[in-house]
Amino acid sequence: MSNERIDGYQLFCLIVLFLFGTTIFLDIGSGAKQDAWIVTLISPLAGLILFTIYFQLHKKFPTLPLTEYVRKIWGNFLGSIISYFYIIYFIYIASRVLRDIEEILINSAYFKTSITVIGICMMFTLIYTVNFGFEVFARVASICFFLIGLTILIINIMFIITELIHIENIRPILAEGWKPIVKELPLNITVPYGELITFSMILPYLNKQTKIFKTGMMAVLFAGLYFTLNILLLICVLGTDVLARSSFPALKAASFIDIAGFIQRLDSFVIILVVFLGFIKVSMFFFCAVIGMNTLFKIKSSALTTYSIGGIIFLSSIMIAPSYQKHLDEGLEIVPYMLHIPLQIVVPLLLLLTVLIKGKIKNVMN
Amino acid sequence: MSGRNQNHLIPLSENVEENIKRLEIELGNSDDLSIRRLKVSTKNVAILHIEGIVDEHSINENVISPIIQLHKETPSFKTENDIADKMVQIISVPSIQFILDWSELLDSILAGNTVILIEDYSKALILGTKKIQSRSITEPTTQTVIKGPKDSFTENISTNISLVRSRIQNAKLRLKTTKVGSVTKTDVGFMYIEGIADHNIVMEVMSRINKIKIDSILEANYIEEAIRDNRKTLFPLMQSSERPDIVAANLLEGKIAIIIQGTPFVLILPVLLIQFFQSPEDYYENNVFSSFLRLIRIGSFLLNMYASAIYLALITHHQGLIPTTLMVTLMAQRERVPFPVIIELLLMELAFEVLREAGVRMPRAIGPAVSIVGALILGQAAVEAGFVSAAIVIIVATSAINSFTLPNTNIVNTARGLRFLLIFSSAFIGFYGILLLTLCILVHLCSLRSFGVPYVAPFAPFRMGAQKDSLIRFPITSLNMTHSNIQKDTKTK
Question: Which of B429, B432, B443 is the closest to A132 by Cβ?
């Protein structure tokens, strides 16, 4: 793992695709109705701050992943407990994302297929990938970046040429003031930007340490701008009511496309995006869990870790929620406050403060 | 046999007859061993060679007659050394060596050299009179072009080297030869251009070739399988070509060519995936048009791999995606077919594979018969009889035709293998299966390296400069034809 070769371009692709993840299929910020695009325009700024925190921590310990420097900063006992929490967190989020993919697939194209089959197929692909290591994965991501970009471009062009875009849907702007926007912000910051915490597990293993910060910033801004464009398109195509009611607005919008009665049902085309983006997102969490596990318990062979963590992710993706609605509710009401905010924001911030204060104390002592 | 390979030296006898006896025993009294006994002053001299692999005319003119002349002109010599020295002066063949070792003598006589033994002299003279029969240079049969050079390699290594040398007349073109195969002792040549080829890769290839431990090398694939990076892959990690212009172009890009005696196919390494879609003709035609053709080839390759699987997924899992009118037509065709689509598809695919194999194997004279049987009976009649639907025949035929657009046959076989995998995964779970298998193929491709060079370069890792000659080709003046893909990112395992 120590000699991975990932250049700035691959890191950019990875961060962008990771942020896209399952987020571009969901109705982010739809609580703010037609002003949802303002939410997605503001939240990357918070994403930049979060990425800065993670990067500052990484700069203090350039060779260690998050789960290791926690132990350096807060001592072996407390640190180990926290790192163990992080590993479980990564596994849990991986299985949540996997569940999202499974549900999207079952709702859009595989009505009669069992969720287990969908999950197991994906898990085999994931395990196959993780076994090859992060370098190979980063290269796959940079190729997927083209494929995904092309697919997104085609779909968006179709929206435009089929005259589905109704600009009047985004008016009136700020009808209810800033309140609904502020209410939506925390959710939109934790997912996807807070999930960049995964990169603090990956960064130490990259060989070019120089351009990370600039690349990361650009990637976050790029993703933020695309989210804004995406939600604007969705609002224009669907209108706020349909947007809030449909579980997968992107699929719904794509299904409106009809060119000459021949090119129809493009929602199945969107499945390409779901599978590719979902694959990259779950893989990232999967890698983090494997790296964390291997470093925390000092395991040499990672094949065993990969298989067991893969199995756990797959099983829990099916068991975490009895139904999709319950899964969504947990994701909106419990996970952000119980897991995301403490682990993505509070702990890293406290870690950084501890490091800075320790540094100050050392300076004063000297 | 293997005893001779060890390094201890077996000296030659000073008695000529003893040596001849020994050679006859070693060669099992082989009838093609030719022995000519002569006398120079008072000493016995024997000239030995194996018939058929030497230039007999040259031996008569340039070796035997000068020695007879010598005997007539100079009746006495002081020592055997003088005889040997004099012989070197009068024999006119390109190379003369002195050897002491018995096993070296045996190897060189088997390689087509002529041996001169002199009585009371502990060394043998080895004369380079090798002449191996080979066919003349003809047009390439597997990699044809409309415009461009029409010569191709032959089975003779020295002809092949000369074809490359004549294209690159540069002092930096290096050639190293070695013998591989403990039984066949095949000549393997190894060409690269000093200063352009990556030194590490050159050393790595050399050490891998020297480590080969197999009995025989009869074709380029013997070497390829012995030295490739990853044994568990369907993708070709080396390119083999019978066109000297391809080899020359690749040498100029910093690649290494391995030329093997006995086969017209020359190995080129390291290789990138994109190279299998590039034809030499791309550089002999207008760049806009050849870029278009390159894209067509890549499209054909993908269609060849995916057409059947996508059709299967559409018919069995995603009928909703097919426009209604087309769906009605397709379903009407399938009405009479008794098999499920997957069986129908596999039947036709296998039938085509059989046809293809038969096409290679059958004698030329009965070719038309097979095409009639293949096209009419398997195609039309099978549809009319209701065994398969017409759509399946169209799909299988399309993917088959597409496979013939590729300039390199190595990659076609890969597509054939992957096509079946894709069909199975598509039958299992439709587009989702195709997508997941595609991801696995991508992961596999990204994990491959050909002699340390990432296989999917210049896409991953992405190199902007190299894009000028990957999917599309820029005008030749704007390509600075160097080795940008090769020298960066090498990690030799």
Answer: B443
Q: Which residues of A touch B459 (CB under 8 A)?
A: 142-143, 146
Chain A residues in contact with B430 by the CB 8 A cut-off are: 109-110
> Is B443 touching A (CB cutoff 8 A)?
yes
Inter-chain CB proximity A140 and B459 less than 8 Å? no
Of B271, B297, B312, the one marking the end of a domain is: B271
Residues of A in contact with B429 (CB under 8 A): 110, 113, 117-118, 121
| Residue A130 backbone class (left: φ over 0; alpha: ψ -120 to 50; beta: rest) | alpha
Q: Nearest by CB to B429, from A121, A140, A272: name it.
A: A121
Q: Does B233 share its domain with B323?
A: no
- A116 and chain B in contact, CB less than 8 A: no
Residues of B in contact with A271 (CB under 8 A): 431-432, 435
The verdict on B317 touching A (C-beta cutoff 8 Å) is yes
Q: Do A140 and B491 touch (CB under 8 A)?
A: no
The verdict on residue B473 lying in a domain is: no
* A146's tokens: 């083209």
Tokens of B11: 């000296």
Instruction: Name the token pair of B389.
Output: 């639907």
Contact call for A143 and B442, based on CB within 8 A: yes
* Domain co-membership, B301 together with B252: no
Residue A279 touches partner B, C-beta closer than 8 Å: yes
Helix H or strand E segment including B372: helix B367-372
Q: Are B448 and B235 in contact (CB under 8 A)?
A: yes
Contacts of B442 (CB under 8 A, 6+ apart): A140, A143, A144
Domain count across chain B: 3
DSSP-based helix, strand, coil % in chain B, nearest 5: 50, 15, 35
Strand ranges for A144-220 from DSSP E:
none
| Closest residue on chain A to B433 (Cα) | A121
d(CA B65, CA B87): 12
ipTM score for this prediction:
0.93
Residues of chain B neighbouring A279 (CB-CB closer than 8 A): 439
| Shortest CA gap B445–chain A (Å) | 9
> What is d(CA B95, CA B89) in angstroms, rounded to the nearest whole number?
12
Judge if B381 and B299 occupy the same domain: yes
Nearest-Cα residue of chain B relative to residue A109: B318
What's the domain range around B47? 2-127
Domains and CATH numbers, chain A: 8-359 (1.20.1740.10)
Per-residue pLDDT 10s for chain B (493 aa) are: 344 445 577 888 888 888 888 888 888 888 888 888 888 878 888 999 998 888 888 888 888 888 888 888 877 777 878 888 888 888 888 888 888 888 888 888 888 899 998 888 888 889 888 887 778 888 888 888 888 899 999 998 989 999 999 999 988 999 999 989 888 889 999 999 998 888 999 999 999 998 888 899 898 889 888 888 877 899 999 999 999 999 999 999 889 999 999 999 999 989 999 999 998 888 888 889 999 999 999 999 999 999 999 999 999 988 888 888 888 998 888 888 888 999 999 988 998 888 888 888 888 787 777 777 777 777 788 888 888 888 998 999 898 899 888 888 888 889 999 999 999 999 999 899 999 999 999 999 999 988 888 999 888 888 887 888 888 888 888 776 554 444 444 444 3
- Contact yes or no for B259/B191 (Cβ under 8 A): yes
A268 vs B432: CB contact, 8 Å cut-off?
Answer: no
Residue B483 counted as domain residue: no
Spell out which residues of chain B touch residue A139, defining contact as CB-CB under 8 Å. Answer: 446, 454, 456, 460-461
Return the axis-axis angle of helices A66-74 and A36-60, rounded to nearest 10°: 60
Residue B92 Cα distances to B112, B125, B391, angstroms = 17, 13, 71
Give chain A positions within 8 Å (CB) of B446: 132, 136-137, 139-140, 143
